[in-house]
Amino acid sequence: MQRLLTELSNFFQHLQLRQRQLALPDLFDEQRSRALILANAALRVAALRQSGHELPPQLAVIGPTQSGKSTLVNLLLGQERAIASPLAGFTRHAQGFVTAGSMTRVAPVIENALPGWRQGVPEEEERQGVFQLLPVDEGVGFCSRPALLWDTPDFDSVGSRGYRDTVPEICALSDALLLVVSREKYADRSVWQLLRLLAPLRRPMMICLNKVAPEESAALTAALRSRLEKERIAVAGIWVLPYITGGGGKLNATGEATDLRGAMGDFLVSSVEQATAEPPLRLLRLNWEAWSVPLRGELAALQMWRQAVRTALDESRADYQRDCLENPRYSYALQRAVVRLLELLEIPGIAAALSRVRSVLTWPARKLRGVLGSRLALAAKDQDQEQQILLAGVTHLLLELQRLAGEQLPLGSELNRLWWRRLLDLQLQRQEQLEAGARAAVASYLRGFDLEIENASQRLYRHLQQHPATLNGLRAARVTTDAAAVALALKTGGIGINDLLLTPALLAVTSLLAEGAVGGYMKQVEAELKIVQMGLLDTQLFNGPLLQSLDDLPAELAPECRLGISGEQLARIDVLLGENV
Q1: The domain at 54-276 falls in which architecture?
Q2: DSSP readout, 184-202?
Q3: Apex CA 267: angle with CA 262 and CA 272, to 5°?
Q4: For burial by CB atoms within 10 Å, which of 24, 170, 381, 503 has the most?
Q5: pLDDT tens-digit profile of 539-562?
Q6: For the chain, which residues make up each domain, given as ranges?
Q7: Are the C-beta atoms of 131 and 93 separated by less than 8 Å?
C-alpha cells in the first residue's frame, strides 16, 4: 500500500505542479483544481503514515470569513493564542498550535507533509504556502493527548483567492474537521462547495453553528440537517454556540462552549483510530476522469502530429519512388555502375602511337580515369534531379505540417489551441534548421550510395570474368571507344565526357552489356541497387534524422503551454486506479 500511495502521490504532485506552471490557470475549473490539491495532500499524508512517520492527532478549524474560527481555536486551547479580529480576512495563513513538548518531533513531519510550504512568519505580500507552528503549554487544551490544532484562513472573501488553496491542504493533513459557520453564513454557496469538495475524503467532521440566538437554534439546526441529508453529506454532529453581546459575559464560560470543548477531544481521538488510506483513493477515482481530459487531449494532439509526420513522409517517399525508382527513364545508379565498370575494363599497354596522341592532347589514361570517377555530365544531371526531388518532398512535407497546425488553431480546448499555436510558431522558427538537416541527410545518403555503386561495379566485373567472350568483346569495344574519343579530340581540340558517353562506340559497349546472360545480371544488379537506394533513404532521411527531429518537436515546446505527461504515465495511473479503487 505504501508503494502505491507514493507512486500516486508523485504523479499527482507533478500534475498539480504542471497545472500551476501552465499559462492557463483555469485548466480545470476551480472545484476540480481544489479537489486535486485535496487529493494530493491526502495521498502524501497517507503515504507518510504508512511509512511509519508519527503525526499527532490533528484538528482543523475551518469556515468562511468572520464566522469565529480564531475564537473557537482559543476556546479549544483554553488560552488566547490565535488572534481574533472583526476584520474580514484577517487570518491569511495557517497556524498550527502544538503541545510544546512535541514541537521538535512534529515540525519535520509537517514540513514533509507540506512540500513547497515555508514555515515562519509570512511576509507582507506572502499568503499561499506559509504556515506557523506555535507551542502551547503541556496539559492545556481540549485533548488528553498531545495534539495539533489548526487555525485556517477563510475561503470565501474577495482577497482569499491568493490563499484559499491553504484550506484543502490543511483539511487533508488533519484527522478531523470542525466547520464553523454563523447564522448568516451557513447557507452560503462557498460553504456548500467546500462541503461537497470534502465529502469524498470522508474526514470526520463536526459543524459548529456560531453566534446563534437561543430562539433561532432549533430552526437553524433543522434547516442545516435537512440540507446535509439532501446533499448526502455525513457529519458527526452539529453544535450551537450562543451569540454573546458586549455585556453578556464570555463565550468560553457558557455551558455550550464547555460541552463542545469536552466533546472535541474524544471526537479527535476516535477519528485517528478510524483513519484508513481508502478515502484518498476514492477521491482520486471520483475526479480522475475530469482531471485526465486535458492530459488525453494533449496526447491526442501529439498522436495527430506524429501521424501527420508519418503520412507526409510516406507521401514524399512515394513521390520519390514514382519519379525516380519506378521511372523507366531513370537509370542513374546503373549508369554510374557502368562508368565504373569501364574503368575496370581499361586495357594495359595501349599502342604507343595512341598513347603519344593522348599525351599531346593532355588526356592521359589517368586523367580519363579521374574524370570517369567524378560526376559525369549525364550522371550529374540525374543526380541533381534526384536531390531536387528529395528536397522538394521535404519542403512539401513541412508545408503540410504547417497547414495541419493552422487548421487546429481554432479547435478544441484553450490548452489544445495554445499547444498547436506554439507548435506552429516553433515549426516556423525551425524551418531553416529542418531544411538544413534534410540537405545534410540527402548528402549523407549520396555518400553512402557511392559505396554501393562501387560494390555493384565490382560485382559486374566479377560476373563478366565468368563470361570471357563477352568480356573480350567489351575490352575490344573499349579500345575502339578510346580511339574514337581521341579522334574526336583531334578534330575539335578537346573532348567532353558527355560526348564520350554518346559516341557510337560507347553505345556499342552498353548494347553488349544488355545482351544474353550478362544483360539479365545487369537487370538484377539494377533492381538490387534500387532496393539499396530506398533502404539508405529510409535510414538517412525518411525514417532517420528528419523523422526524429519532427517527432521531437512537441517536446521542445515551452513548459507554459503543455502538460508534458506521457501516454505511458497516463496508462500506468489508469491501471493503478482500476486495480486498487
Answers
A1: 3-Layer(aba) Sandwich (3.40)
A2: TTTT-HHHHHHHHHHGGGT
A3: 140
A4: 170
A5: 888 888 888 888 889 988 888 888
A6: 54-276, 291-575
A7: yes
